[in-house]
Write a structure and sequence with these properties.
4-stranded antiparallel sheet, alpha+beta
Length: about 180
C-alpha cells in the first residue's frame, strides 16, 4: 500500500485559496503533524460548507469531534492544526462544567473546508496523492485515526468511517509493524 510510493509530498493549498480568504500556508510538508491532522479527520472529522443568509457569501469550517476522555489528544491535535495551518483553533466543551461527551475542535476557514471536501468524495477516504512511504507522516496518520476513534461514546454519536479508512488503518498497522491487540 505504501511501498514504492514517494517519500513525501507538499500540500499546495493555493489551489483552495480564494481572493479575500484568510491566509493559509502555500505549502505544508508531509510530516507527523500533517499525518495527525489527516488521520484525525478520517477518524472523526466533518466539513461544513453553507451560504451565509445575511450576505450570500459561502462560509466553511472543519470540525473534529474527540472524546472528552481524550483531552491530551484534543490539545495535541489543536497544537498541530495551529502549527501547520497558522489558523485560530477553537475547542468547545473544554470547560469541566459543560455537559456532553465530546470536545469539538473547530477551524473556521472556507479554503480548508474545500480542501477536506476532497477526502469525502465517494465516501470518506485518504486521497491517493497522500499515500507516501514516510514513517513520520504515516505514524501521525495512524495516531490520528487511532486517537480520534478511541472511545466508545464517539462511535455512537459519529458516523462510522468508510471501509476505505478501515483498510488504510489495517495497512498502516502492517506497514509500521504495530502490535494492535490493545486497540
Amino acid at each position: 500500500m505504501f511501498k514504492g510510493k514517494p517519500p513525501g509530498f507538499y500540500v499546495n493549498l493555493n489551489r483552495y485559496r480564494e481572493p479575500r480568504v484568510r491566509h493559509l500556508p502555500t505549502r505544508a510538508p508531509s510530516d507527523y503533524n500533517l499525518g495527525l491532522i489527516f488521520g484525525a479527520f478520517l477518524g472523526s472529522g466533518v466539513v461544513h460548507l453553507s451560504t451565509d443568509n445575511r450576505n450570500g457569501v459561502m462560509v466553511g469550517s472543519v470540525r473534529w469531534y474527540i472524546s472528552r476522555q481524550n483531552r491530551d489528544f484534543t490539545e495535541k491535535l489543536a497544537e498541530a492544526l495551529e502549527d501547520v495551518l497558522g489558523l485560530n483553533v477553537y475547542i468547545y466543551g473544554r470547560e469541566e462544567r459543560r455537559e456532553g461527551k465530546l470536545h469539538t475542535i473547530l477551524v473556521s476557514n472556507r479554503a480548508l473546508a474545500y480542501f477536506f471536501r476532497d477526502f469525502l468524495e465517494d465516501g470518506k477516504h485518504l486521497p491517493e496523492m497522500f499515500y507516501v512511504d514516510n514513517k513520520d507522516y504515516l505514524t501521525g496518520l495512524y495516531d490520528g485515526i487511532t486517537e480520534s476513534r478511541r472511545y466508545k461514546d464517539i462511535q455512537t454519536q459519529m458516523v462510522k468511517p468508510d471501509v476505505r479508512v478501515n483498510e488504510l488503518y489495517e495497512g498502516l498497522i502492517i506497514h509500521l509493524g504495530i502490535d494492535d491487540q490493545n486497540e
